[in-house]
UniProtKB/TrEMBL annotation:
The chain crosses the membrane at residues 274-296, 316-334, 341-360, 366-385, 397-422. This is Spore germination protein. It comes from Paenibacillus gansuensis. Keywords: Membrane, Transmembrane, Transmembrane helix. Belongs to the GerABKA family. PANTHER family: LEUCINE ZIPPER PROTEIN 4, SPORE GERMINATION PROTEIN. It comes from the Bacteria. Signal peptide: none annotated.
Length: 460
């Protein structure tokens, strides 16, 4: 619907478009012989900006036009009531001169955001201590400062018919794969929802629909990690209201890389990366290996170790499989409880709960000492993985591995890993194989972190 030249008529139309919201306000100014009305949402605007950059300039330049008088950078014009209503909920002030149907849209939003802080989920001893925040413009400012080149391309989208979630896609024009960008734009154009909660919704809606526990997009809160992946030709997605960035396409090996690897010597960086991959294997297979050994094949172990296992399980009535599952579920419950509770209480519950439960279940002969050690080591091994999504996948994959190991012994454990490798080999991330570059010329930056002087080629 087009706007009217009458101020009262437009006020009624805008109020109806905003469903009679009570924070919709108007103010009238008499500038010379002209009557000017300001429409705004008082919950969204900054009164100081309106006073300094709109009202005072208008009163000082009574014969100038709106565009020439105001000192607001973000300026627009429209004759549509729907566009004006959308501008109001975005924090803009709509200005109209009596007798004219044209509406002037001036950005006067009140910006409240937390300051740039240190990363919470991806801390490192060496490297940058900046983290992304919930404000999209601040995040784009960080990335522009880190990559000060015109080659960095930023494209913005609005997703969600009702939520109008702002999404920014970052890529390096001369490096990024144009076919990959086209495929992404196609997939993002097919999103047709009222509400898009990013980046979680985007992760599910954009990636391939093949069922898998393994993440196919890298989620990070570190600007330096985003920069490193952009320089490799990957694509980054930032969203309004989220401090996380989606990066794709990524391979399996990207989830074991840390920015700290490149701040240390290449030998130490390679050792740490290989340790993470080894701990990933332990997190999945160690409880299953323990169950298989004590259930079927204790003779494989050295005699002294077998005696130790036998003595620790002598008075335990619960079968090993139920021991392992019970302890893993208990550990997951403790972990979730420490996350959901306030920090001081959560840390106390985690420590006290772990000690009390561990002591009680052993003294009551419900769980063997060795099982407590195995599950504790499994938990620590999963926490060393830098990616939360990959760490969670490792923890939950331990359950089917335990079951197959209980059914078939060490053969079940071997079958589990065979099925796991087969599944990983079949996964694609935006058309790129999940194990891509793992065993090719680019192995210098996958399983290990090669010397910087050797890392001269980007992934093909």
């Amino acid at each position: 619907m087009n706007s009217s030249s009458f101020l009262d008529t437009n006020e009624k139309l805008l109020k109806a478009s905003l469903s009679e919201s009570t924070d919709f306000k108007t103010s009238d100014l008499l500038v010379g012989e002209r009557r000017i009305r300001l429409f705004y949402m008082d919950s969204m605007i900054d009164p100081a900006i309106i006073q300094e950059h709109v009202i005072r300039p208008l009163l000082s330049h009574s014969f100038a036009g709106i565009r020439e008088a105001v000192t607001v950078l973000d300026y627009g014009e429209t004759v549509l009531i729907s566009e004006a209503a959308t501008a109001l909920v975005e924090g803009k002030t709509v200005v109209q001169i009596e007798g004219q149907a044209r509406l002037y849209l001036l950005k006067t939003a009140l910006d409240k955001e937390r300051s740039i802080n240190i990363p919470v989920n991806e801390r490192v001893l060496r490297g940058s201590n900046q983290a992304l925040i919930e404000n999209l413009q601040t995040n784009l400012n960080l990335m522009r400062k880190l990559i000060a080149t015109p080659d960095l391309v930023v494209k913005t989208y609005k997703l969600g018919r009702q939520s109008n979630t702002n999404v920014a896609v970052l890529s390096m024009h001369s490096i990024a794969d144009k076919d990959m960008l086209s495929e992404f734009e196609k997939r993002i154009g097919n999103i047709d929802l009222d509400y898009v909660e990013a980046p979680g919704f985007l992760q599910e809606l954009i990636q391939d629909r093949k069922f898998s526990l393994f993440p196919r997009m890298l989620v990070t809160e570190r600007p330096d990690r985003v920069r490193a992946n952009l320089m490799d030709g990957k694509i980054a997605v930032l969203t309004e209201g989220s401090p996380d960035c989606l990066i794709f396409p990524v391979s399996f090996w990207a989830f074991f890389q840390s920015p700290e690897d490149y701040q240390l010597g290449w030998l130490l960086g390679s050792a740490l990366r290989f340790l993470r991959i080894l701990c990933f294997i332990f997190a999945i297979g160690l409880p299953g290996a323990y169950v298989a050994l004590v259930t079927f094949d204790p003779r494989i172990l050295p005699f002294e170790i077998a005696l130790t296992l036998q003595s620790s399980m002598q008075y335990i009535a619960m079968p090993p499989i139920f021991e392992a599952i019970f302890m893993l579920i208990t550990l997951d419950i403790l972990r979730e409880a420490t996350i959901r509770l306030p920090s001081p209480i959560g840390q106390t519950i985690g420590v006290v709960g772990g000690i009390v439960l561990g002591t009680v279940v052993v003294q009551s002969n419900l769980i063997s000492n060795m099982m407590v050690i195995v599950v504790a080591f499994t938990a620590v091994a999963s926490f060393i993985i830098p990616s939360y999504e990959m760490s969670a996948a490792a923890r939950y994959l331990a359950y089917p591995v335990i079951w197959l190991s209980f059914m078939f012994g060490l053969i079940g454990l071997e079958i589990s890993f065979l099925l796991l490798i087969t599944h990983l080999a079949r996964i694609n991330t935006m058309g790129i194989p999940y194990f891509f570059n793992g065993f090719s010329d680019s192995i210098l930056d996958t399983v290990i972190r090669g010397p910087i002087r050797k890392l001269k080629k980007r992934p093909k």
